[in-house]
Amino acid sequence: MKKILVIFVFILFSITFSFAQNPFKKSYRNFNIGVNELYLKSYSAISANKYEILEIQSDNGYILFNVSGRKFLLKVSPDESGSILKITPLDGDTSKGFLIEENIFKTIENEITTQVPKVSQ
């Protein structure tokens, strides 16, 4: 009986754990563009959303910015298919949602999909 109870608890825990959402999954996104281009688009997205930029390190690929008293670290790094953009709050508090991250991701995606016509000379 004890073995059956242990197996039941293990199965229940496995099912619950598999459906649990990873809170950091919403804090990064893959893009099919180069690292430098994504870095510039990230800088542009932060400025477009009127967030305060505190520090820029283009060699390391990160931007430190402030939104309503909360500091965030934006990091751009290479990937096999392009680039990865990761945004994390410096206080580590993910309970306040991912609205700021989503705003930046949507702004970058809009910039990528919007084609700017070339001006002929």
How would the blueprint of this fold be written?
Layout lengths: L1 H18 L8 E4 L3 H14 L3 E6 L4 E6 L2 E10 L2 E8 L9 H15 L8
Helix pairs in contact: 2-3
Note down, in words, how this protein is organized:
- The protein is α+β, with helices and mostly antiparallel strands and 121 residues long.
- Helices cover 39% and strands 28% of the residues.
- The protein contains three helices and five strands; from the N terminus they run αβαββββα.
- β2 and β3 form a beta hairpin.
- It is globular, with a radius of gyration of 20 Å.
- About 5% of the residues have low confidence.
Summary, kept brief:
It contains three helices and five strands; from the N terminus they run αβαββββα. With 121 residues, it is α+β, with helices and mostly antiparallel strands.
What are the defining features of this structure?
3 helices, 39% helix, five-stranded antiparallel sheet, globular, 121 residues, alpha+beta, 5 strands
Rounded to the nearest angstrom, the radius of gyration is 20 Å
Q: Largest sheet at a glance?
A: 5 strands, antiparallel
Strand tally: 5
- End-to-end CA span: 83 Å
- Let me know the average pLDDT: 82
Helix- and strand-based class? alpha+beta
